[in-house]
Design a protein that fits this description.
It contains 13 helices and 12 strands. The chain is α+β, with helices and mostly antiparallel strands. The protein has a 7-stranded antiparallel β-sheet. Strands 2-5-10-7-8 form a 5-stranded antiparallel β-sheet. The protein is globular, with a radius of gyration of 21 Å.
């Protein structure tokens, strides 16, 4: 196959939480001791593709606040039932997802999933940072059904299904374009759904919020970024800016902090540790106080900046030679 890591297949007689957590994120499984499951797992650049088929009864997946606290690396999950149906619940929303429909879940919050007997579900997982850069209002779209029977939803559904069908033939070097195309189609499908029942004022507010987010993305390295500066740049009052972000469950600077930390974590994961590199990356994304950055990073991800970095093999080799 062409992907960097070969697919692996798990055949399970009884779905154990520890095993299922290794495939997805930390979760509990309820009423699944008699369920037989087969999970095919493939890794692409920035995307994990899992196809899970189960027999032996209905069961429930539960992710609670303790699981969220224990997780250092989060994901946005896209589910596409191929056979059967499931019910997803998150942020107070409960939606039935039938064959061909699309659902979204964010591991940074609690959720539940009820799966029918004889289900066959395709799961794609992406980093929240990658999704939020292309799908504005993620928190407003989790726990909702995207109709996969018509319009952009149908196009997105068929594209996601094709990823599952062809994952072993996809070139790893091209998978970044593929997962960005998938996110863009999902984003377009959510916009298509909202356009069918949104009032003009609601759509205008969303557009303004998107403009604010775009400005923030372009100025994450500005340590003087502030609500006043953001509001002035897009021509609104600071009070209206605060109201827009409150509708998304955030404050403007809370959003800035979250996006900066996510960008720092992505940069740190690509960079082997060496003296001064953490400080350099923190400064690059607008953090001028390193002790405060370290505390915020650990609070957000449960690990220190250095702990998410790959080991410096060259340094380790040199130290080993010196010791010998």
């Amino acid at each position: 196959m062409s992907s960097k890591d070969p697919s692996r297949v798990l055949c399970l007689h009884g779905l154990m939480p520890s095993v299922m957590s290794s495939v997805f994120v930390e979760i509990d499984i309820i009423n699944a001791s008699g369920v037989v499951g087969r999970y095919s797992i493939s890794e692409l650049e920035g995307m994990r593709v899992v196809r899970g088929t189960t027999q032996g009864g209905r069961y429930q997946v539960l992710r609670n606040a303790q699981h969220v606290r224990q997780t250092s690396s989060h994901s946005v999950f896209v589910c596409l039932p191929l056979v059967g149906e499931l019910i997803i619940q998150q942020h107070g929303r409960r939606s039935g997802i039938s064959s061909g429909d699309i659902g979204l879940l964010d591991s940074r919050d609690e959720y539940t999933i009820d799966l029918s007997d004889g289900s066959d579900v395709l799961w794609l997982s992406f980093s929240p940072t990658q999704v939020e850069a292309r799908l504005r209002g993620l928190s407003d779209n989790v726990g909702r059904r995207i109709d996969g029977s018509r319009g952009v939803g149908l196009v997105a559904s068929k594209f996601l299904r094709s990823i599952g069908d062809e994952v072993e033939n996809l070139a790893y070097s091209r998978s970044t374009q593929i997962n960005l195309a998938a996110i863009d189609l999902i984003s377009a499908a959510t916009s298509d759904r909202d356009a069918s029942h949104s009032f003009p004022q609601v759509k205008a507010s969303r557009k303004t919020w998107e403009r604010a987010c775009d400005y923030i993305e372009r100025h994450l390295d500005d340590e003087n970024l502030s609500p006043t500066k953001i509001a002035a740049a897009i021509g609104i009052s600071t009070r209206y800016l605060s109201d827009l972000f409150a509708s998304e469950g955030q404050s403007p600077m809370g959003w800035v902090m979250r996006r900066r930390l996510e960008q720092c974590r992505m940069a740190l994961r690509r960079q082997p540790w060496m003296p001064g590199i953490v400080t350099s990356i923190a400064f690059q994304y607008g953090f001028s106080n390193i002790p405060s950055f370290n505390r915020a990073f650990r609070e957000a991800f449960g690990r220190s900046p250095r702990e998410v970095m790959p080991p410096n093999t060259q340094q380790s080799s040199a130290e080993s030679q010196y010791a010998n």
